[in-house]
Amino acid sequence: MPNESMESALERWLDEQTRSSRRAFLGRAGSAGLALSGLSAVLAACGGVSGESTKGVNLNATANHPKVAVGELDFSNWPLYIDKKVLPQWDKLTGGSVKYVEDINDNNEFFGKVRQQLVQKKPIGRDLVALTDYMAARWVRDGYTQPIDKRNIPNGVKNLQPTLRSVKWDPKRNYSLPWQSGATGIGYNIKETGGDIKSLDAFFDPKFKDKVTMLTEPYDSASLTLLTMGIDPTNATIDQILQGIAKISKYNDKGQFRRFTGNDYSTDLTKGNIAIAMAYSGDLVQLAADNPNLRFVYPEQGAMLFTDNMMIPSKAAHPYAAETMMNFVYEPQVAAKITKAVSYISPVVGAREVLAKSDPAIANSPLVFPSDAIRKRLHPYPTLTPAEERQMQAAMAKVTGA
Predict the structure, then answer these.
(1) Per residue in 210-237, pLDDT tens?
(2) Residue 279 CB neighbours (<10 A)
(3) Verdict on whether the full-model pTM lies above 0.90
(4) Is 320 helix (H, G, I), strand (E, B) or coil?
(5) Which whole-number Å values give the CA distances from 382 to 232, 234, 241, 304, 356, in the listed order?
(6) Which of 43, 180, 218, 329 could form an S-S bond across to 222 if both were Cys, CB 3.0 to 4.6 Å?
(7) In 3-state terms, what secondary structure has residue 23?
(8) Rounded to an integer, what distance in angstroms lies between the CA atom of residue 211 and that of residue 69?
(9) For residue 328, how far is the Cα from the chain centroid?
(10) Nearest to residue 124, comparing CAs of 132, 115, 135, 133?
(11) What value does the CA radius of gyration of the chain take, rounded to a whole number of Å?
(12) What is the pLDDT of residues 169-209, one digit of tens each?
């Protein structure tokens, strides 16, 4: 790899190996982690690590996107993540034409498709993308996105849930706007547990030895484990995260965990092969509809909050069109239709009130509309440097055997 920098080689290898995702019915599997032997091979081939580059992105930057004819909008999103009936409404409202493509099946896989164009500062053929927090943070950090013009998104300014208005990697939401959110907490089969589960300590309770699964993805597993140790995962250092992984390793050596999974925990949970799974809230909305023994709980200590974020790529051809779409989906009536279709946590204030009139069961579901008390217990993922992320993934891979 004579023309490839060390940082690029490591990122490329990470892109090929890491598979992080969220939504089970989309096949958004958990991370496979980093195999140390493969990482060593990359280092040997490139001659060692000389350090990480840093990019000075101005997080306070603003944009000025004139109101022009909307025209075409190229929007990449995850499959089954919208009520497609709203798209013709946007066309009619704006006079534009949206090309909505469901081609994000995995954060890293999608990044691999467009990485070269982004690095070379070329258009990627999309005006709007929806990426999960840690990948969104990476795009912002590396200058792959452009600031949004908030004057064109008044609904996003006034209707964004207060708890989502600031994230560490985009404190003023100058580069991003949440699409949908979900939580990682405890899924359990009450028939197998013999009662309700409320605490993350259940994952480490010998009573459930070999009846527990944990996610391969350390952003979830290590973070939730830190909550059992009294550590806020959002602000955790890499050393604290490694302590969490060490605890997982200790209990894994004792045979506590049946296995580490991606979204395939759902099969074991449904069949009763396990009692407790580290699980995603949206999955349980789907699963519980078919199996009344299944439950999801936001643990007493807290749960992890993940968000897929709308962003405008740095060289997008139609930024104003993208902003009109952002504004459109933050209309409570439109947001309610999307929420009904996808069963994830809406970031839009007012969507619940709309659904209360038409679909009270959805409006009253704490998995779709967590109370303010629950929202205060939801923790965003930690923000890591590329080197720290590789260190975390490598440590977890040792535990899971990935």
Answers:
(1) 999 999 889 999 999 999 999 999 999 9
(2) 28
(3) no
(4) helix
(5) 9, 4, 9, 10, 34
(6) 218
(7) coil
(8) 58
(9) 22
(10) 115
(11) 21
(12) 999 999 999 999 999 999 999 999 999 999 999 999 999 99
For the record, the structure tokens of 281 come out as: 């809230």
Confidence of residue 399 (pLDDT cuts 50, 70, 90): very high
DSSP-derived letter for residue 381 is P
Instruction: Quote the tokens at residue 309.
Output: 């974020």
Tokens representing 299? 């643990």
Residue burial 326-357, b: 16+ Cβ < 10 Å; e: rest: bbbbbbbebbbbbbbebbbbbbbbbbbebbee
How far apart CA 91 and CA 81 sit, in angstroms, is 18
DSSP sequence for 215-280: ES-HHHHHHHHHHHTT--GGG--HHHHHHHHHHHHHHHHTT-EEEEESTTHHHHHHHTS-SEEEEE
Q: On the CB side of 282, how many CA atoms lie within 13 Å of its CA?
A: 26
Q: How many CA atoms lie within 13 A of 137 on its CB side?
A: 17
